[in-house]
Structures are given as structure tokens and as C-alpha cells.
Amino acid sequence: MTSVSSIASWNASTLRSTATPPASREEASSLPVSTSSGTSSTIIALGAAAAQGLAQAVAAPLQWERASRDQVSELMAKNFAAGSSAGRFSGLGAALLDQLKGGVTQLSQTAQRAPNGAQAATYAGIATGVSGALHGMGDDKFSLGITTNSGVQVRLSLDSDGDALAVQMTASGELTDAETRALGQLSKAFQEAIDGMAQDPPQLKLAGLMQFDAKQLASLDLRARVGLDTQPPSVQTLSFQADATQRKVAFSGAAGSLDVKVDASQAASLGGPEQQARAMKSYMSQFDQAATRGHADGALMSLFKETFSALHTTVGDAAQLSLGGATPGKWQLAAQDQAMLTGLADFSASVSQTPKMENPMRLSEQDAFHYEVGQSTSIAGRSIDDRAISQKQTSSLSASFHMPLVAGTSLRLTTAAESQNYSYHQIDDSARSEANISYRDGKLAKATLEQSSSQSTRVQRYEMGKLKSDLTNPSVHSLTRDLVASLAPYQAGQTQLNLEQKAQQRTQMLRELNDEVFLRADAGR
């Protein structure tokens, strides 16, 4: 795709002028700018309304990296005076991607507050030689990298600090019309992700980006860093990667951090929508139980749950599409195989709350929360008649917190003995579920479900700062089930049933069995 030099056609190339900056805005209304062909092109100044908005938006004159009259520069001028990242970046991500629809594949612009005494220069007037040094170096910044299936790399960046705002877009090669459309369709989703991260508390609005057109786009990589007006100052960061078979999100903020990875490389083990919905409901319940037991931060756990659910939403569809609709994996699994599995793609996920030292008399006592959960699947064997399938699910919870001795009252722990009436709780839990199924010469040879859980609660009780009791309550459970007989195609008591009734009974039996394989904190009881 060829870049066009004319300003009237939304030129993306950096333009310079050697003309002396005008003494007034009126003088800047029509200035010649040298184009790549050596001819002159006229830059039209802002209209009266836009000029008035610009004058109101900035407290000092702005200097610009390049002279241009385009939607992105107009929006930068409008947003410049915003006091928050949400205001500075409002609409900019979408506007930048929208430039592709007009044929622009290369764009670089910076707006910078001019030093005291410097003369104003509107972006529709003359470029004042501001460097592009801010690109990728802002205090607050977003970057999006997209690779097409043909290998073209598109990079977008938005950067902001107190005195400057910058955007940049580059493409490593020519885009096809289909690729251009696929990229343009992400403009709204990119802006939603920016708006979510710029909020306080943040929201990870990534669902739109995960709907990318896998027929045209191979991968996405989003990075973000936003400063928070906290004491002491802090930042929240985001890293998101997605391709045909994987989704990864890592987030860190004032409340804590989370890390979620979803891997559909074992796509043959993916279940249908109903099975996945039941598995997701089970995991959401497990997360709620862990949050309640460990006294987790509600907003952080909501962010974790939303991210976990969103990353599983489309990964199976993308994996199928990347293989041209063919059945992924080694073989098509049988119904009884699927019944032994969750139906979800493999994953690893963790969420950690920022520890707090709530008791100045005992700084070793922290209010903290850390939860991990994961699933891994193995499909092996020389042939479909000798296949072996294994799926492991694990979880662990480590938490600690203070509680008042009298329910309904609030703790105000100080160095005074009179405030030191509380109980300190320490939680240490783990759970595991493993399903194994194998065949020999086409016949079911093994089907087992092993589940176990361990829970430990330690409670230290203090009165007037003195330890009155220290109790630990541990529990361990395990269970192993042989399911070969349950998975057999013919069950006792079926002699009076016709073929359709037998099929219905088997489907119901497999569904009930599937409900038993989902991980639970009290597995093995």
C-alpha cells in the first residue's frame, strides 16, 4: 500500500517547513509546505470553533512534530489539557487504527507544551521541529503490536507525560485489503482496552481484542503502563498476548497482581459449549470460595474472574480456524473420553494481593492472599486404538488476615495494648484431581479418577496484646475411583430400553460423571 504525500489525502509522512513561524494565528491560516515532489501544498488552518477549543484546551502554546490536518492531530489538541490518562488517551487508539481505512500506514505525531515565551503553532500551521523522542518513553503509555498471517508487522504506540502527548503507527510492509479491514475492525476494541486500563480501579476490557480475525491476523501484543495518583505514587501495568492457540494476561496494580495463561495446543480435548459452561461455572464457584476463605480483595478477585473467563471464550474457535476447520490434535476423542475431561483448554492462573502490615505491634503479621490454579492435559499413544489421555487439575491457597474478637466490630490496631484484641488467621490449602483413561487394541483398559485435598487453618488469639491460644486445624482427604465399569457401553438394567432410550441414558450418565471430574477445594471427601 503506497503512502500519499498530499495533506488533503491524510498524508502520514513527516512534513517539515523552513518558513519562519507566523506572528499570529491569522498568518498561519494558509502556509506552503514542501511535498515529496517539490511542489507546494496548502495547509488549511483550524476552523473558528476548533481554534477556540484548542485555545481553551491548553494553558500554554503547543509545538508539533509535524504539520498535518488529520483526525488524530485534532484529537490530540482537544485531549491535551486533560488531567488524567483516561482524558489524554480518549478516542486516540481508535482514531489511530481508523487511519488505516484511509490508506495511512505510517504516522508519527507529537504535541508538546512550548517553553515560556515561545510562540504558538497550531498543528494545521507549521511543524516546529519537536522531536519524536517521547515515542515509547511516556510516563503513561500503550503499545499494540499486530502481525498479519502474511508476515506484515503493524505497531502502534501512545505516550503521555506532563508536557507532551505522542502517537505513532508503522507497518513493515504493504497490507492487503482484507488485512486492512481486519485491523480496522479492532479500533473499537483497542480503545476499550485503553479506557479500561486508564480507569481507577482498572478494568481489563480485552474481550474485543480476543475477537480478532484469525483468518487475516496471526497475533496481537498489547502493553500498557499507567501512573496512579496514590500515596506513595504507584503504577498499574498490563501485558496481553494472543495468537491462534494461546492467550496470556499479566496485570499489576496497587491492589495486587494476576497472571493468566490459556493454551489450546491440546485442542482435541476441548469440549462443547455446554460442557465448557459447566466447567467455567464450577471454577467461578471455586474462586468465590477461595476469596471468602482467604478474605481476598473483592475488586482484585473480580478482575481475576473476568480475565479467566474472557481468555477461555474464543481460544477454541481460533484454534479450529487456524487449522482450517480440521479436527485438531492426534485423534477425535470418544464421548467417554470427553466425560473424563473438563472440556476447557489447559491453563495456569494466579492472583496475589499486595501484602499489608495492619498491626504495628507485630509487623510479621501480614494481611495477604495468594491463589493458584492450573490444568494440564496429555494425549499420547501409537494409534487411536492404543491412546492414553491424562488430565491434571491443581489449586493452592495461601492467605492470612486479622479479625476482631467481637463480630461486627472494627479493628484499630495500634501500639497500645488496649487495641490488641484480635485473632490472626493463616490459611494453607491445596487440591488436586487427576483423570486417566487408556485403551489397548481399541478396548477400554483403564479409567481412574484420583482426587485429594488438604486444608489447614491456624488461629492465634490475642487479648490485650497477649497470646491466649494458638490452634491449628488440619484436614486431609483423598479418593480413587475405578470408572471402567461405569464407562462401559452396556449397563445393567437396560434390557427394557430401546436404542434411543439407551443412548439418552448413556448421555445422562456421562454428563453426571463429568460433573464429578471438576476440581473442588474439598476434593476427595
Explained architecture:
Helix 4 (92-98) runs antiparallel to helix 6 and helix 7 (273-294) packs antiparallel against helix 8 (298-313). By secondary structure, the protein is α+β, with helices and mostly antiparallel strands. The protein is 23% helix and 35% strand. The strands form 2 sheets. A 15-stranded antiparallel β-sheet has the order 3-4-7-6-5-8-9-10-11-12-13-14-15-16-17. A two-stranded antiparallel sheet has the order 1-2. A hairpin with a 3-residue loop joins strand 10 (246-252) and strand 11. The chain has 12 helices and 17 strands.
Tell me, briefly, the overall form: flat
Order of SSEs, N→C?
A: EEHEHHHEEEEHHEEEEHHHHEEEEEEHH
Query: In percent, how helical is the residue content?
Result: 10-25%
Structural class: alpha+beta
- For the largest beta sheet, what order do the strands appear in spatially? 3-4-7-6-5-8-9-10-11-12-13-14-15-16-17
> In percent terms, what proportion of residues is strand?
25-35%
Task: Compute the number of strand runs.
Answer: 17
Average pLDDT score: 83
How far the N terminus sits from the C terminus, by CA atoms, comes to 64 Å
Low-confidence stretches: 1-58, 318-328
